């Protein structure tokens, strides 16, 4: 799988479905893509093909390529219709874009769940802010004690390791 063009990282569909990550997109959304080939690459392939085969064979090869694309489009449409037929009448209006994880989750969850999820996100953000503030105050309090890092580590209470002879009982 190719990496995300903006960040270089592989997109995570789970994070995207939860609304936390970027969807797998390309840099220019207006550029049509065919098998992950951009317009510039497609033009370069056509020019190289014209040079290698000669200008008299290019129209013939274009016709063959159009036939192959038409055949592949028909196969894809037949597969979609077959899936719709096997799933039943309740999925008759299904589109391929409905099969993305994000759209599936949105369809399955009730409408009021979005407001609940937004409230949970807000609460988590507040907790994150409080934790950051707590870490900053704790770090400043530790620094103000004047103890060296080794002395601070020595003050941390240690637990005894479990006794190997005991049979899992806690004393």
Helical content class: 55-70%
- Separation, N- and C-terminal Cα atoms: 53 Å
Residue share in β-strands? under 5%
User: How many strands in all?
Assistant: 0
Shape: elongated
Which blocks of ≥5 consecutive residues have pLDDT under 50? 1-6, 26-33
Counted by DSSP, the helix tally is: 6
Regarding quaternary structure, what we see is single chain
Main sheet, how many strands, which sense, barrel? none
What structural class do helix, strand and pairing data support? mainly alpha
Spell the H/E element sequence: HHHHHH
What is the element layout, followed by pairings?
Blueprint: H1 13-17, H2 39-53, H3 58-87, H4 101-108, H5 112-144, H6 149-154
Key terms for this structure?
171 residues, mainly alpha, 57% helix, elongated
Notes on the protein architecture:
This protein has 171 residues and is mainly α. It has a domain at 98-131. Helix content is 57%, strand content 0%. The chain has 6 helices and no strands.
Short description:
With 171 residues, the chain is mainly α. The protein has helices at residues 13-17, 39-53, 58-87, 101-108, 112-144, 149-154.
